[in-house]
Design a protein that fits this description.
Blueprint lengths: L8 H14 L5 H8 L3 H7 L5 E5 L3 H8 L4 E8 L2 E8 L3 E4 L2 E4 L7 E3 L4 E11 L2 E10 L4 E6 L10 H14 L4
Antiparallel strand pairs: 1-7, 2-3, 2-9, 4-5, 5-6, 7-8, 8-9
Helix pairs in contact: 1-2, 2-3
Length: 176
């Protein structure tokens, strides 16, 4: 393969920014797939007002705060599909190499929190509506899962969760 023919990262980032300008409220995974980059590269190209990144070692502290938000939407988005689950974020504890989630919620399992490289607070339009999420990114730059501020029946964001999202983001802004 001719390495000189491969675009450099600055060129790829410019293309991602062009994609975002054309469809600022579109699906970010579509851009990542089209540009053959991990989703983190697209998140890093968002306007700083839309995306704030903190270190992954804040996993337990951020997770703990999320447990008091009430019903959220938990999303896992891969090339093969999008899995969505509504429920409360249950508490968890570290053990045997995993962050073990337990409690009375449809959200459960075992996460490799040691692989969490970064956590993003995303506040942007998604198909014309404001969308706020906390996205956990792995060592390869892929998103492990996302936790979205819930919506009311009229599709507006739940005000109490929006306040919690903004407070959590502000709390960690100095560590971004």
């Amino acid at each position: 393969m001719n390495m000189s023919a491969m675009p450099n990262m600055q060129d790829v980032e410019a293309l991602i920014r062009e994609d975002l300008a054309v469809r600022p409220d579109g699906v970010l995974e579509t851009i990542a797939e089209a540009r053959n980059v991990p989703l983190q590269k697209v998140l890093d190209c968002l306007d700083p007002a839309s995306a704030m990144r903190v270190k992954g070692n804040l996993f337990e502290e951020i997770w703990s705060d999320l447990t008091i938000w009430g019903e959220i939407t938990f999303v896992v988005h891969t090339r093969d599909g999008v899995f969505e689950c509504k429920g409360s974020v249950p508490p968890g504890t570290a053990g045997r190499g995993y962050f073990n989630i337990h409690g009375e919620s449809p959200i459960g399992g075992h996460l490799r929190m040691d692989r969490c490289r970064a956590i993003y607070f995303i506040d942007r339009l998604f198909f014309g509506k404001r969308s706020c999420s906390v996205q956990f990114v792995n060592e390869e730059g892929g998103v492990m899962f996302k936790i979205f501020v819930g919506r009311n029946e009229d599709r507006s964001l739940k005000e109490d969760q929006l306040v919690r999202f903004e407070a959590l983001r502000t709390r960690f802004a100095g560590q971004a």
